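From the pipeline queue, job 12 of 40. The input is one protein chain; the requested action is below.

Action: predict structure.
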Amino acid sequence: MTETPATTPAAAPVFPAGRYGRRREQRRRRPWLVVAALAVVLVIGVMIAYSEYQKYGDPAYDAEVISYTDVTDTGIVVHFRVNVPADGSATCGVRARNRAGATVGSEEVRVNGARGGEPVTVDHRLTTTERPFIGEVLRCRANS
């Protein structure tokens, strides 16, 4: 009894000479090019992250909503506290939303820093298009 192999090894194809044109030669690999491209992408990513952090994520301008009062059909008073560097100023985005979560009013409020860098408490009346359910501070950033 003879043994039959289950698979036969694939042989490399043999092409007739001159029929399919010239075969490509193997290209030289350039690993330094891949490393350089990754380094450039990394540096650009870090620059974008730093820029966005300076614009939106600076904890020196951290805001905290204390409360919101005087809720009427046309407005709300938002009480909030902002950390502003001494003799600096900030712009804070304040908004009000209705029960469904839709924005019914928003404004940007300028806040001037206190001497000594103490947190500043702000009471701002926000005009709305309908009765608000909540008032909030979206973010604060340095004035540019």
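Job complete. Helices lie at 31-56.
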